[in-house]
Amino acid sequence: MPDDNTITVDCRGMSCPKPVLETKKAFENLPPGGAIRTLVGNPSAAENVRRAMEKSGGNAVIKADESGNLSVEITKPAGCGLLEEAAETVQPHVVFIASNVMGRGNDELGAILLKAFIGTIKNVAPLPSHIIFVNSGVLITSEDSRLIDTLKELEELGVNILSCGTCLNFYNRMNDLKVGVVSNMYDILNTLTQASKVVAP
Amino acid sequence: MILEKGKIIIFRTIHDAIRAEGLLTESGYKPRVVPIPKDVSSDCGIALRLDANTFDGAVDYLEKAGVFISGCVDEAWY
To answer: Do A112 and B77 touch (CB under 8 A)?
Structure first.
């Protein structure tokens, strides 16, 4: 339970999602075993803060005093943060993109979903060791678009970007590759076989 | 590596997001398709990220084109 060392985060009068963000910031800097009390102005803010903190690995309880003032009491368990450390030791995976759209159905939707998928890769740890493009997936690596910048950033972070040579050939894009290297079925199969897991949009 | 914090435009529907992405790209803006920040909404939503220096122009352009924008947040928020 929180004691006198509890850090108070006063979020009364703040609108969504500020209370969650302020509390998260305090939680990140909190040593394991520490406690936070977030003061909030309404029940939905209290619930949002409680949920976000539970998700981050904390214990959170909503309290109301005699006058109805709401607060969320948060404690950080001693083992908190171990999950993130464990994530760092996970073996790299491979992302396998076999189409220029994500999923089956409407291609316009599929195209924007794939853009969001590729754009989010760098926000999720650990990064893949490779991203492999085959079939119409190579239309992404051989065409000027915002995604090329994204893929170049990933390449700078050490991610190998492979595009199937047969596929570039088929789409008449052999000289248009904008990022990464041309690869062949032997390398592609080898990479897939050695991956800890393969993630495909 | 882009380190600059951008701005995120959020739409009411995926159709608005797709239309906005097309319009902005055609007009030379460089929107990046991103998921809606988790702190803003847990929906499986698509949003557009723009560099801060092109953001105001992009919003103006979309409003003039009649695309409904439901909100904007700083990229630093997620």
So the answer is: no
- For residue A93 the two structure tokens come to 């995976």
The domain of A13 spans 7-84
pLDDT of residue B2: 46
Given a cut of 70, whether residue A10 has pLDDT beyond it is yes
CA angle A109, A114, A119 (to 5 degrees): 130
A62 and A105 housed in the same domain: no
Question: Do A112 and A192 sit in the same domain of this protein?
Answer: yes
User: Is the separation of the CB atoms in B16 and B54 below 8 Å?
Assistant: no
The model's pTM is 0.63
Query: Smallest Cα–Cα separation from A177: which of A149, A199, A144, A200?
Result: A144
Cβ distance of A116 and B25 shorter than 8 Å: no
Asked if A115 has any chain B CB less than 8 Å from its own CB, the reply is yes
Tell if the CB–CB gap between A116 and B39 is shorter than 8 Å.
no
pLDDT tens string B11-69: 988 889 999 999 999 999 999 998 887 777 655 588 999 998 999 999 999 999 999 99
A77 and A139 part of one domain: no
Residue A187 domain flag: yes
- What part of B 38-77 touches A (C-beta under 8 Å)? 39-40, 46, 49, 77
